[in-house]
Amino acid sequence: MRIAAQSLQNVKAGIRPVDFYRSELPAMPLPLGSGWRDGGLCPFHPDKRAGSFRVNLATGAFICFSCGTKGGDIVAFIQKRDGLSFPEAVQRLSNEWGV
Ligand SMILES: [Zn+2]
After folding, report:
1. Ligand 1 centre from 65 Cα, in Å?
2. 60 C-alpha vs ligand 1 centroid, how far in Å?
3. What is the distance in A from the centroid of ligand 1 to the CA of 19?
4. I need a surface site. Which of 32, 57, 94, 98 has the fewest CB within 10 A?
5. pTM for the full model?
6. Residue 58, number of CB atoms within 10 A of its CB
7. What is the SS3 assignment for 96?
8. How far is the CA of 5 from the centre of ligand 1 (A)?
9. CA–centroid distance, residue 63 to ligand 1 (Å)
């Protein structure tokens, strides 16, 4: 499965990380602000205590200081959370967000 560079560009340009994480992480504490912040419970390990998962609402990067999962953008987030390849993750984001 090939992915057009255009699709990736559309996903990057059409989905703001702040909107993405507000949708994907409903438990993320408010207010949102910008840059690195508390992402609430980590979606990558059975997290019972908030405080170790951080997301960057400007770039989409994420890191968990508890389980060590990290990535540089929302495509990486979807890949790791849902076990998808890079093209699959771009395709899913494109479909789900209509970009
Ligand atoms: Zn974690």
Report:
1. 7
2. 16
3. 21
4. 98
5. 0.90
6. 13
7. helix
8. 30
9. 8
C-alpha distances (whole Å) from 78 to each of 33, 49, 84 are: 22, 22, 7
d(CA 77, CA 26) in angstroms, rounded, equals 15
Q: How many residues does the chain have?
A: 99
Task: Quote the ligand 1 centre to 4 CA distance (angstroms).
Answer: 31
Over residues 2-52, the pLDDT tens digits come to 667 888 999 999 999 999 999 999 888 887 777 899 999 999 999 998 889
Residues 14 and 71 sit within 8 Å (Cβ to Cβ): no
Give me ligand 1 centre to Cα 36, in Å: 16
Helix (H/G/I), strand (E/B), else coil: 83: coil
Domains of the chain, first to last: 5-97 (3.90.580.10)
- Give Cα separations from 51 to 9, 28, 76, 91 (angstroms): 32, 10, 21, 31
Strand order in the sheet with 62-64: 36-38, 53-56, 62-64, 70-71
